[in-house]
User: What shape does this take?
Amino acid sequence: MTTDTKLNGRTALVSGGSKGLGFAVAEALARHGADVAILARDEAGLKNAESQLASVGEGSVLTVSADVTDDNAVAEALRQVTDWRGRLDIVVNAAHRGLQSAPLSDTDPAVIDDVLEGKLVGYARMIKAALPLIETGGTGRIINIAGVTATSLVPGTGTAAIANAGVIALTSYFAAEAAPKGILVNGISPGMTLTQGWLDRHEGMAKAQGKTADEVRAGMVAGLGIGLGRWAKPEEVASAAVFLASDMASYVSGQVLRVDGGLGKNVF
Ligand SMILES: NC(=O)c1ccc[n+]([C@@H]2O[C@H](COP(=O)([O-])OP(=O)(O)OC[C@H]3O[C@@H](n4cnc5c(N)ncnc54)[C@H](OP(=O)(O)O)[C@@H]3O)[C@@H](O)[C@H]2O)c1
Assistant: This one.
């Protein structure tokens, strides 16, 4: 039995890898030895992330500017990655449009459509294009970042929840279709994670509510019943991605691992 999470010699592509959870996953995969390509639209954001990743791990880093809502851009991005190292082992889907914070009943259907296109359909587009290119010798992995809003009620996140529920279903179906090739498709459903997006949102909420950002965070921990009593650090979610990408997860297929600190279970 292997106890090894080393990823040396493997090539990973992380969509949304310039920021937030995607960046944390890219950093963790690099730290475990993978060559990591990060994909996002904004070149400046990619270059900034690349400079932070430069000193991490033994592998190298590639930046790929592409929009996951565009078939041709995704195909071209995959071509760049496979040309780079001559192989593609791991694809992590984390790109999304950003959180639309509003009750679902106040949300324009066009916004829902846009969020689905930017996350759920973007993930499906990436997987469909990547599957024929991913290594079939046992190192092939696809990891989809969903979100606990799919199954736990978090006020104001209904639009994201619909996309996340779709990501869970998509993970099951692609896993079943890819399993005969030996490619493992799994997901991670993060809970409340302290990415820059949420840190900024907390500042705004704090001003609006006449509280400190720490008080806002603590209020959400209490309101959502997070058993561990705190928000996640992005690297705590990224660790799950390292596990799923590694030989340690060689018999895990079609699963979505909740990394949520026990959200919704704090009844004691
Ligand atoms: N943060 C949390 O607490 C949390 C909790 C549960 C689930 N999640 C999920 O985790 C994933 C990452 O979330 P995050 O909050 O960490 O993200 P984030 O900080 O908002 O970063 C989003 C990333 O996606 C890229 N992106 C956005 N639209 C894109 C497009 N059309 N094509 C290519 N790249 C695009 C962005 O770069 P550009 O703008 O330059 O393209 C950026 O790199 C998402 O799927 C989110 O739903 C997050």
Q: What stands out?
A: The domain at 11-193+233-259 is CATH 3.40.50.720 (Rossmann fold). The mean pLDDT is 96. DSSP finds eight helices and seven strands in the chain.
